[in-house]
Amino acid sequence: MLPASIPSPDPVWSQFSLGPLTIHTYALCLLAGIVAAAWITDRRLRARGAAPGIAIDIAMWAVPIGIVGARIYHVLTHLGDFTGPGVDPWAWVRIWEGGNALFGSLLGGALGVWIGCRISGLRFWSFADALAPGLLVAQAIGRLGNYVNQELFGLPTTLPWGLEIRSDAPMFPAGTPEGTLFHPLFLYEMIWNLIGVAVLLLIERRVVRRNDALLADGGTPGPGLRWGRMFGLYLIWYGLGRSWLESIRIDPTSDAPLGIPANIWTSGIAILLGIGILVVQGRRHPEPEPSVYMPGREPEDEDAEAGGAGDSGAEAKKRAGSDQDADVDAADADASPVDPAGSK
Length: 344
Known about the structure:
Helix content: 55-70%
Distance between the termini: 104 Å
Number of helices: 9
Order of helices and strands: EEHHHHHEEHHHH
Strand order of the largest sheet: 1-2
């Protein structure tokens, strides 16, 4: 049975102290999402032949640059909050007070992934394809932080699952009666993202099975959801979701070119970019992806090297002993009186 409403969280849960440090729950939600995405991506890359832990190496570049991109995007789309007389210029960098745009994190994170892939030798699109489901999981987890901060909700509603927003919350619309319920956009997006994970993995599984059947019949398998195709589907799915969610979102400080919120413009760009990736990569790479690594950047087989080094130990001694036994046997055979060669 659905609750009468989704209650607003107690402000005490938004942050807590740990000695001299102040821990923000929103930051913990983001961190949990990052960890989940890195774990999922690493498992998917290892299944495709990548070295264990390579997703962590790339995340070391993607995460900080993504955070910077998220903040820059938020500031640029909310300039009214960060410019004008009496505005503290340090407010631009106080990300712990909220205000991190996911689209900005995608742009900054993409740059970080590109840098990390260049250093590690991994193909950019291979990493992006492996990341796509984990990225949706991370975004779903991160939206819990928006609930704690009371900053992602939609128009007023009388639905049973309406969200309570504290009247002292920064985003509470002026002139709205206290006790008004709002659409819980954070929850809608969480559900949309988790459904997206299931949809993407289902499509991927069916494509893999089709390719396996073609290969078993002696045919030529297709590229599957590689070369960026999986990430293209992610952009389309996420862009579609954000476009309709943003249309009912209350964000009173957001700049809206032509009366259309900036995030709707960006959602449309994400959808078009996803379609473009599918079309362009489909023409450029109709063949299966040979490796997740760039040509000539494949890691050496450390297990084989370790095995070879181990031969100098017990295995080498064993072979040496066998060779000595063979030499002794050969010498005894030459000296034997019944040897056919000696009877001459």
